[in-house]
Amino acid sequence: MVIENRTRVRGIACRWFGWLVLGWLAGCATGPAIYDPIRDAGFQGPTLAAVRERPEVFLQTRVRWGGTIARVDNQRKDTWLEIVEHPLEDYGRPILADNSAGRFLAQVPVFLDPAIYAVGRPITMVGLVSATTAGQVGKYRYTYPVVVVEHHRLWSERRGPDVIYVPDPFWPGPGYGPFYPWGYRPGPFW
After folding, report:
1. Contact between 120 and 94 (Cβ < 8 Å)
2. CB neighbour burial string for 165-184, b if at least 16 within 10 angstroms, e if fewer
3. Is residue 113 scored above 70 in pLDDT?
4. What domains are there in the chain, each with its CATH number?
């Protein structure tokens, strides 16, 4: 009878140990990585300046460009965005600086709400260079490269870190000095 209890306990312990190992292994498992062409750090494509110089060479070439939205124009079947180009970080977010290689037009095959895709919002897109078109920036004649967008990402505004004051447990908080509540009293040697 004692031997039967030991084998029974051992069987229960082995089952519990098996379930624990299985749970541990499942926690370490990862699924297949989802490819995001916007955040692809190794993306190599022509720059806007190169395409503006020789657009015929880069037709049907995949590009990853980004910048800030300057204008939104909704048509029946698509939306046209005029974007002021900015250099991108490794993972695709535009670096909002005072330098730009120019502007380009992005043809997005869906409706984009102008209240969400507002002027000044940062955006990054991946698409094919399809053509160039003439336009104007103010009264200046400008030739825009046109990108047919395959993927795009609208970026949210970056916030700075939240500063949280954590009081030191061995020192009084703000507004109190080390001599609180007695005040400063010079010692015999001051």
Report:
1. no
2. eeeeeeeeeeeeeeeeeeee
3. yes
4. 45-154 (2.40.50.140)
Q: Are 92 and 62 in contact (CB under 8 A)?
A: no
Q: Is 189 helix (H, G, I), strand (E, B) or coil?
A: coil
Q: Where are the beta strands (DSSP E) in 43-159?
A: 62-74, 79-86, 103-108, 122-137, 140-154
Which residues fall within 8 angstroms of residue 25, CB to CB, at 6 or more apart? none
- Residue-level pLDDT at 47: 92
Q: Whole-model pTM above 0.90?
A: no
Radius of gyration over every alpha carbon of the chain, rounded to an integer in angstroms: 30
Look-up: residue for tokens 């500063």? Answer: 163
- The least confident of 7-16, 49-58, 60-69 is 7-16
